[in-house]
Specification:
By secondary structure, chain A is of the alpha/beta class. In chain A, about 55% of the residues lie in helices and about 10% in strands. Chain A is built from 22 helices and 10 strands. Chain A has a 6-stranded parallel beta sheet with strand order 1-10-7-4-2-3, with helices on both faces. With about 170 residues, chain B is of the alpha/beta class. The longest helix of chain B has 11 residues. The radius of gyration of chain B is 20 Å and the shape is globular. Classes of the chains: A alpha/beta (about 450), B alpha/beta (about 170). Strand 9 of chain A pairs antiparallel with strand 7 of chain B, so a sheet runs across the interface.
Chain lengths: ~450, ~170
């Protein structure tokens, strides 16, 4: 199903669509206040963009530097070309340590690789410990947002879910009480876990360390108790030096939630005494994207979600309508690069308003890239048949002034003769929910000639 | 595995050159006339609270009368712009205790309060410890309908005790 069909299902519930829109706009406004509170905001964005561009230009150099520094601190570095190798590597580590219970903090990369299902099929219990992630995991659905995985759900639905899955009281819908239920449930899982898996927000080439940002402290609890820590990262997570870290940390939470910093910004350098730290570095299509001059800057993304919160299409159509690991504007650039046929509708789920580019903390030119993708997808033959025929016909007509005039005359006559209901239906999504304007008797060109001739 | 490493780095061969100038932060970071007030405000926004003490005696008294079960940690530097405090656990037991406790008290010296995060990173070397963390307030979540709830997994309360030594 393409984005338009999936979005139509979401917007069919008008009240929920409006509620979802307002929830995300609330986050967008918090982001604005945090950004405007810092006089050096634009300087931070410019520096972040320059540092990321520089890192991507020298990525192989920094990856090797990172590997050497991490290894020197006692971490084990693994490389995975694709999702399958990533999953095999993580499973191999868990199997070698006899792990059957794993706690996991948020990692969009493991979502991208389908790690949970892979490990589940091999007898390993994987518990997502971020509250939003745990909620969607219990519902057996993917996250709808990369920062707020359960933002599409209302408190009553979460109360029903917890009643069904965790045995909490029926009808509970107070967020504080629901969080307490999840806390007690997850505390047991933390204490029973034999390994902790985390994502990576930033990997520092100079020091060989990784940084993980959370508000809940779940990455900290998940790695403080069990002896085995596995961290999974895409090759694009690198930054050159420690001095670059504050630039990104200052931008990340302000852009994501409007906080000055997340509650926990945790730095890991090598394993704990007696424990093991394994870093799995994943390509999965990223090196191909890096070679693409038009779209390589999408690899600068720090996954703050600001482009989603501001996007008028995302806000009104919901994250699941994208059918992708990463939804919204940045997902509509990354996902077609992975699978153009499957995600061809995404770059068209955009009004080119450019709000995403305005809020992006690393200044990715998102709307330019979305427009570029449309051309690439059309040239590659991924436009649907109906749309291809319609645009082809429009091209023929508009190329000839005479054909355009004839088509206009025909349309004006038809619009006066036929019931409006037929016309709004024929126009599809362009005319649905809209009223027809008054149809003029003559064309603009005829009217122009008449008035000038007077 | 080694083959994958070579294949990935091979695909990135065009980016193998050593960098010459490395860009950094080109801006003027925020400055506070009253960093304690800024820190207090930022910490409150993060769900924590600040208490200030002059000299050892008051601080020791406050620590002695802290609720049982509160975990006391030595931290610093502290960051006025965000309410964050750098902390490196002294032991693995302290590390897990800081996340299992209901209340955390971070003790920081006044002279370790800096305006912004750039200055904080100039004073620390996270690489010398296998774990270190900037903490800003207690554990929290807004995953259910954007409602802020304190105490997602870790501490439900975080106090910073700022100690100023008499001149």
């Amino acid at each position: 199903m393409g984005h338009p069909a999936a979005a139509a299902r979401f917007t069919a519930d008008e009240a929920r669509a409006h509620w979802h829109d307002a929830a995300l706009w609330f986050v967008r406004e918090k982001r604005d206040r945090a950004a405007h509170g810092l006089p050096e905001w634009e300087a931070l964005r410019a520096s972040a963009a320059a540092i990321k561009a520089h890192t991507l230009d020298h990525l192989a150099y920094y990856l090797e530097q990172f590997e050497a520094a991490a290894t020197a601190r006692g971490a084990h570095v693994h490389w995975a070309r694709d999702a399958a190798e990533h999953n095999r590597t993580v499973h191999g580590l868990l199997a070698a340590h006899g792990v059957t219970r794993l706690v996991k903090s948020k990692s969009m990369l493991t979502e991208e690789c389908g790690l949970n299902a892979y490990l589940g099929a091999r007898g390993i219990e994987v518990v997502d410990t971020d509250l939003g992630e745990r909620i969607v995991q219990l519902r057996r659905e993917p996250p709808s947002h990369i920062v707020f995985p359960a933002i599409h759900l209302k408190r009553g639905e979460i109360g029903d879910l917890f009643h069904r899955e965790l045995g909490s009281a029926e009808g509970l819908d107070d967020p504080t009480a629901l969080t307490a239920v999840a806390r007690a449930h997850l505390r047991e899982k933390f204490l029973a876990a034999q390994a902790g898996l985390t994502g990576v927000n930033f990997a520092i080439a100079q020091t060989g360390g990784i940084v993980v940002c959370t508000n809940e402290g779940n990455a900290d609890l998940g790695t403080a108790l069990p002896p085995l820590h596995i961290a999974c990262m895409g090759i694009e997570k690198l930054i050159p030096r420690l001095e670059h870290l504050p630039v990104f940390v200052r931008l990340l939470a302000r852009s994501a939630t409007g906080q000055a910093i997340t509650a926990y910004t945790s730095h890991f350098h090598g394993p704990r005494p007696g424990g093991e730290l394994h870093l799995v570095i994943v390509d999965n299509g990223r090196s191909r994207l890096l070679a693409d001059r038009t779209h390589r800057s999408a690899l600068a993304c720090i996954r703050c979600g600001a482009c989603m919160n501001t996007c008028p299409v995302y806000r009104r159509s919901g994250g699941h309508s994208y059918g992708a690991t990463v939804p919204g504007p940045i997902g509509s650039i990354l996902e077609p690069a992975r699978d153009p046929a499957r995600h061809a509708s995404l770059p068209f789920a955009c009004s080119l308003c450019a709000s995403c580019s305005d809020v992006c903390p690393v200044r990715i030119d998102l709307h330019h890239q979305l427009l570029a993708w449309r051309g690439e997808l059309v040239r590659a033959g991924h436009l649907g048949r109906a749309r291809r025929l319609a645009l082809g016909a429009a091209g023929l007509v508009l190329r000839s002034p005479r054909a355009t005039a004839a088509a206009g005359a025909l349309a004006r006559a038809a619009a006066r003769a036929l019931p409006a209901r037929w016309l709004t239906r024929a126009g599809g999504a362009w005319t649905r929910e809209r009223a027809l304007p008054e149809i003029p008797r003559a064309s603009f060109r005829a009217e122009w000639r008449r008035q000038r001739g007077r | 595995m080694a083959a994958s490493r070579d294949e990935i780095l091979g695909a990135l061969a065009a980016t193998r050159a050593a960098p010459d100038p490395i860009p950094g932060f080109a801006g003027e970071p925020v400055h506070f006339e009253d960093p304690v007030a800024a820190f207090r405000e930022a910490l409150a926004a993060a769900g924590g609270s600040l208490a200030t003490f002059t000299g050892r005696a008051d601080l020791d008294h406050a620590l002695a009368s802290a609720e049982p079960g509160a975990v006391v940690l030595a931290g610093g530097p502290a960051v006025a712009e965000s309410g964050a405090v750098w902390w490196v656990p002294r032991s693995e037991a302290e590390r897990s205790a800081a996340f299992l406790a209901e209340r955390v008290i971070l003790v920081v010296a006044r002279e370790q309060l800096v305006d912004h995060l750039h200055a904080a990173y100039q004073q620390i070397d996270p690489a010398v410890a296998h774990y270190g963390c900037f903490m800003a307030g207690p554990s929290k979540t807004a995953d259910i309908e954007q409602a802020l709830v304190i105490g997602a997994h870790g501490p439900r309360a975080l106090d910073v005790f700022l100690r100023e030594d008499p001149k």
